[in-house]
Write a structure and sequence with these properties.
CATH architecture: Roll
Strand content: 15-25%
CATH topology: C8orf32 fold
Oligomer: single chain
Distance between the termini: 31 Å
Helix content: 25-40%
Number of strands: 11
Radius of gyration: 17 Å
CATH class: Alpha Beta
Strand order of the largest sheet: 8-7-6-5-9-10-11
Number of helices: 7
């Protein structure tokens, strides 16, 4: 769980969608067969099998309701991934892994859980403006933490997808979390417990998010 600091907001933003449209057919582009073969060669068959499992998960759940997609995605990654701190996993104080990097490691910290859930749900067709990567203070641990939140509209109480408390719960029932700020591919907000918060700028101010999406773009080539 990283420390929260304002100098964290830096540089330019490059949002990457994981969904492409070809004619009237929606085609999900997670990673190419070439990339899959590279992962199999460099990281082994178990890593490539996790990639295939993820792709199958996205393909098989396109027609579920949004509430079902949220629960399935939250459960899928909470069961599949192990929590490991950045300094042990990446030998860095703070590192935001791409979904591919997280699948290869089969591990990540709270940001990595949140990021892969976010991109999975956008691949499942959940609108970006309903999803936010949300920094909170985990009061029980007195530490910064990240969760994914979903709000159907501006008046609804956000649902929280978390790797600590694994139940899909409304933010009003998460008294153990104090919201700080949130962002997605469209903006940056100061967060409130029961509301979406006040927009204060672009997610381009978040350096690690910019670096993450840049790496994802290279991965998909």
């Amino acid at each position: 769980m990283p420390k929260i600091s304002l100098p964290f907001f830096l540089f330019a933003f490059a949002f990457l969608s994981l969904i492409q449209w070809t004619g009237a057919e929606k085609k999900i582009i997670l990673y190419s067969e070439k990339k899959l073969a590279q992962v199999d060669k460099n990281h082994g068959s178990e890593a490539s099998a996790r990639m295939l499992s993820w792709k199958k998960f996205v393909q098989n759940n396109q027609n579920k309701s949004e509430k079902e997609k949220l629960k399935l995605t939250n459960d899928f990654f909470n069961q599949q991934l192990q929590w490991v701190a950045d300094d042990k996993l990446w030998k860095k104080k703070d590192y935001w892994a791409t979904p591919l990097e997280t699948l290869i490691k089969k591990a990540g910290d709270c940001e990595d859980f949140t990021i892969i859930k976010y991109f999975t749900l956008t691949s499942l067709g959940v609108p970006i403006d309903r999803l936010r990567l949300t920094y909170v203070k985990a009061l029980k641990y007195n530490q910064a933490h990240m969760v994914l939140t979903y709000s159907k509209n501006k008046r609804s109480i956000p649902l929280v997808l978390d790797n600590i408390n694994k139940k899909l719960l409304p933010a009003s029932q998460r008294k153990d979390l104090k919201p700080v700020y949130s962002f997605n591919g469209e903006g940056l907000w100061l967060q409130k417990q029961k509301k979406l918060g006040k927009k204060v700028g672009s997610s381009s101010r978040i350096r690690l998010w910019t670096e993450l999406t840049s790496r994802m773009k290279k991965e998909l080539l």
